[in-house]
Amino acid sequence: MQRAILLDRDGTILVERHYLADPAGVELLPGAAEGLRGLARLGPLVVVTNQSGLARGYFDRATLEAIHAEMRRQLAAHGVELAAIEVCPHHPDDGCACRKPRPGLALRAAARLGFDPVRAIVIGDKACDVGLGRAIGATTILVRTGYGAREEAARTCRPHLVADDLREAAELALAWDRAAAALPLPAAGPDAPGEVPA
Ligand SMILES: [Mg+2]
Ligand SMILES: [Zn+2]
Predict the structure, then answer these.
(1) 125 alpha carbon to ligand 1 midpoint, in Å?
(2) Which of 53, 118, 129, 198 is most buried, taking the most CB atoms under 10 A from its CB?
(3) ∠ CA(13), CA(17), CA(23), 5° rounding?
(4) 16-31 pLDDT, tens per residue?
(5) How far apart are CA 150 and CA 113, in angstroms?
(6) Ligand 2 center to residue 78 CA distance, Å?
(7) Is residue 194 included in any domain, yes or no?
């Protein structure tokens, strides 16, 4: 398992609710399930999400688990399964190593699931998502859902690609993967036959 798809939650998969604190507020964005089905062909789907509402006392762990169970239930109805959900529960002032754009969540997931962070595709609606992707050397896609259009207009970050939503992000990622696979390059890695020098 070399590649994984790292996804922001709010404004990327789910409708942005500004501190979602109720499973009844879980609503998939248009095209999200379809996009995730496509992206799943490239690697396991891992959600990486800042949830400072925990540290702020806006909701507790049990509520967060219920929200994630509801999100998984809705995605499963569309044939989408998440490999993992990695949460930063800290306050911005805590100085933790896992609040995006810091790379902690992605590195923890990479260690658990055994993927190469550099080959990951990071998708989100905020500069901190793109920042996380840049921090681990991944390919980054900004989606215009949630805060994404605003971030794009304000030029807060430099993503590799910009997509209207997860559906288009999947199209771009799959097209890019096909193009890369078609390149006449020797396979990388220690087991690949080396090129004979001229
Ligand atoms: Mg977001
Ligand atoms: Zn954290």
Answers:
(1) 5
(2) 129
(3) 75
(4) 999 999 999 999 999 9
(5) 33
(6) 31
(7) no
Report the catalytic residues: 8, 10
Instruction: Decide if 136 is inside a domain.
Output: yes
Residue whose C-alpha is closest to residue 73's, from 11, 28, 10: 28
Per the domain annotation, does 160 fall within a domain? yes
**Residue range of the domain that includes 166:** 5-175
- Asked if residues 53 and 39 have their Cβ atoms less than 8 Å apart, the reply is no
State how far the Cα of 182 lies from the Cα of 61, in Å rounded to an integer.
Answer: 45
Q: How confident is the model at residue 2 (pLDDT cuts 50, 70, 90)?
A: confident
**Which ligand approaches the C-alpha of residue 105 most closely?**
2
Count the neighbouring beta carbons within 10 Å of the beta carbon of residue 19: 13
Ligand closest to Cα of 51 equals 2
pTM attached to this predicted model: 0.91
All residues at 6 or more sequence positions from 37 whose CB lies less than 8 Å from its CB, including other chains:
78, 79, 80, 170
Per the document, the length of the chain is 198
Is 184 domain-assigned? no
